[in-house]
Design brief:
single chain, alpha/beta, about 15% strand, about 40% helix, eleven-stranded mixed sheet
Length: about 425
């Protein structure tokens, strides 16, 4: 009997793995079959559609900006597809703000307009708006399994909760928006690392930009950290201009990156004495309830920065955690090596959102949980640390959020 059960489980596992493999190797598809036909049919349509939109509304009525390496479809309203392209596009859009959960893609599409712009014009408009708002600019990078419009609706929420009037830009790389396309998304991410780094440098080089706030979610943290490292390294070259001084506020929400890789990059490159002394702060939001990060841990084999799982057998449960849950398991967080000085250590802040998480998977607490959303808003605006908002839980800058403390715009209407 047990032998039959084992055989059944093996067959079931083999079937599942075959389905997974098949889903991962299915080639991209385009209208008309071949991508060359697709691109050819759209070559002039994007500019034409953009002109038609601007004939009936002003650019100022399209308040958000984007940079995208997605292949656009412009037969009708402009839509950024799930496929990748070697050309980076710049533009503006408007969007309805997301509610408690994402609106359906069709609803977002019908209620928004997107235009494609010349890069130089786009940069000029970024510079002009930044100049009117203390030189502050947000660049947001989404994670795995997300569409252009889902990200667009999310950054619309940033504007509301943080009362941010400077330019808000989404960098939209070609995620395939399918649960079993994690490997495909990871491949696309690697392809666009150099281009993302170049974009960060172009924005930081604008004289009107005084503070470039870098924010990422999930897998997007790998793009952000690579771009930040590149601009920091470029600043060390002879006769170069140090644009890295403009990047002092970095936020990693549910980051899907190896914890030790992050610690290495942070201690050697992006959190040096000089960077921290210049005011650089990295804020990490993580959660013990983050199911996506737990799955990534299983897939990748090592702890992720966005999780709190503890593989250290000697780790002890802290008193604060026991007070919350007597049966709690130990949690471990990213730390910078003890060999570096306290000034460097002060630049890294880990915010555990586990106790305030109110979603089914805990992967977007930074924007969904009211207390975390409020803290996120405060960090965007460089507000000082507040005991009412957070409490320290010991060595290093490790924090937990206090329940019931949320600003109005971070509370969702029932």
């Amino acid at each position: 009997m047990h032998k039959r059960i084992r055989q059944y489980l093996r067959i079931t596992a083999a079937t599942f793995l075959s389905m997974l493999a098949a889903s991962c190797i299915t080639p991209p598809t385009y209208d008309g079959g071949d991508w060359r036909n697709f691109v050819g049919k759209n070559s002039d349509l994007c500019a034409q559609q953009s002109q038609e939109i601007l004939a009936r509304r002003s650019e100022a009525s399209l308040p958000y900006y984007y940079i995208s390496s997605r292949l656009p479809y412009c037969a009708g309203k402009i839509r950024m597809t799930l496929q990748r392209t070697d050309k980076i596009r710049y533009g503006r859009f408007d969007i309805i703000e997301e509610g408690r959960t994402f609106e359906k893609e069709e609803v977002l599409f019908e209620n928004s307009d997107t235009i494609v712009q010349d890069q130089n014009i786009w940069l000029q408009q970024i510079a002009a708006q930044a100049a009117l708002n203390d030189g502050r600019v947000i660049l947001y990078t989404h994670g795995y399994n997300e569409t252009f419009l889902e990200t667009a609706s999310r950054i619309a929420r940033f504007k509301t909760i943080a009362q941010f009037n400077g330019p808000i830009i989404q960098y939209s790389w070609p995620s395939h928006r399918k649960a079993l396309r994690y490997a495909t998304d990871g491949t696309n991410l690697q392809l666009y690392k150099p281009q993302y780094a170049n974009i960060v440098q172009k924005l930081a080089a604008l004289p009107e930009v005084k503070s470039l706030i870098l924010i990422s979610h999930s897998l997007g943290s790998q793009l952000l950290l690579h771009g930040l490292q590149e601009i920091d390294l470029a600043a060390k070259k002879p006769n170069s201009v140090d644009y890295s001084k403009k990047i002092t506020n970095v936020i990693l929400a549910s980051p899907d990156i190896d914890k030790q890789i992050f610690e290495t990059i942070a201690s050697r490159h992006i959190m040096t004495d000089e960077k921290v002394a210049n005011g650089r702060r990295i804020t990490v939001y993580n959660s013990a309830k983050d199911k996506a990060i737990k799955l990534s841990h299983i897939i990748n084999g090592y702890e992720r920065l966005g999780g709190t799982r503890c593989d250290d057998p000697n780790a002890l449960v802290d008193d604060d955690l026991i007070a919350i849950n007597p049966k709690a398991k130990a949690r471990c967080y990213a730390i910078l090596p003890e060999t570096i000085n306290k000034e460097q250590q002060s630049g890294l802040h880990i915010v555990d959102t586990s106790e305030v998480s109110n979603s089914s998977n805990g992967h977007s607490d930074f924007i969904n949980a009211p207390e975390a959303c409020s803290d996120f808003s405060a960090v965007i605006n460089d507000m000082p640390l507040n005991d009412k908002r957070r409490r320290s839980i010991g060595k290093g800058n490790i924090w937990r959020l206090n329940e019931g403390n949320a600003i109005k715009d971070c509370k969702y209407e029932k």
